[in-house]
Amino acid sequence: MQTKLKIFFLTVVNYPLGGNADKYANAVDGLRTPGPYRVWAKTVCGVLGQPIEDWILTAFESPREMLVSILDSEIRGKHLSTSVSFEDFEKIKRAANRCVPQQEQCGIESGAKIGRVEQMLYPGSSFINFGASNDDLMTISRCMVFNGILGLASYFLMKVLADSQKLKIKRCPYCKLFFPAKDTKRKICYKTTCNNAYHKEDMQSRRDKNPVQYCR
After folding, report:
1. CA 152/CA 98 separation, integer angstroms
2. 112 pLDDT higher than 50
3. Beta-carbon neighbour count of residue 42 at 10 Å?
4. 15, 29, 47, 96: which could join 154 in a potential S-S bond, CB 3.0 to 4.6 Å?
5. Do residues 26 and 44 touch, judged by C-beta distance below 8 A?
6. What angle do CA 133, 134, 135 make, to 5 degrees?
7. Strands (E), 90-167
8. Lowest mean pLDDT among 18-32, 101-115, 125-139
């Protein structure tokens, strides 16, 4: 389950929802195996298979970019205050707490209330506000689902911040995507194109520094 949750998290931080609903659906589908997210994942897959309104896509992107900014700061070793405000980070922590499985100790903030996973389908992690003009039950339900996606991604982000060395998530400087590294020293992702770009750049650097040896 930990691996499938990591795949889900990397999908959220690597891709905007717009134009990538199929990637999100595939990542969420992996959580439908027996476990704490099974019922939720089934509901989300159903919603992702339908057209998504433009205003939801726009509303989804802002908190998603917050998660990206925090993760990038953690990887670069920068202070989180340089990436998001205190208020935004508190919102992310609250959303994360609503997505913690009952059987798991929270460890995110003392005294936090750990709710049932099904609470992700209720208006709690309010990243996306459906507003008075969109108060029909269908729209509200859909917003709850997308808030749940952001909430579950927030939960895994807290796990990364708690133990980034163990989870070994890196960001490739070439494709700019986050990826799970096999060791903490890894800097480039495993795609052939990125590795070729790295070796080409490295060889050019060697030629510039020592043209006699490398330009024969």
Report:
1. 8
2. no
3. 13
4. 96
5. no
6. 100
7. none
8. 101-115
A 10 A CB-CB count for 170 gives: 19
Burial state string for 144-164 with b = 16 or more CB within 10 A and e = fewer than 16: bbbbbbbbbbbbbbbbbbeeb
Please give the biggest Cα pair distance in the chain.
Answer: 72
CA–CA separation, 52 and 142 (whole Å)? 9
Spell out the long-range contacts of 66-71 with Cβ–Cβ below 8 A and sequence spacing 24 or more. 66/92, 67/12, 67/13, 67/92, 67/150, 67/153, 67/154, 67/157, 68/13, 70/157, 70/161, 71/13, 71/157, 71/160, 71/169, 71/171, 71/178
DSSP state at residue 206: H
Question: Can you point out the beta strands (E) in 80-212?
Answer: 169-171, 178-180
Place of tokens 């995507």: 177
Q: Tokens 């896509």 correspond to what residue? A: 57
Residue 144 carries which side chain, given as an amino acid letter?
M
Q: What's the pLDDT score for residue 80? A: 66
Work out the average pLDDT over 187-195. Answer: 93
| Predicted pLDDT at 108 | 37
Contacts for 149 with CB less than 8 Å, ≥ 6 apart: 12, 24, 28, 44, 60
pLDDT of residue 109: 40
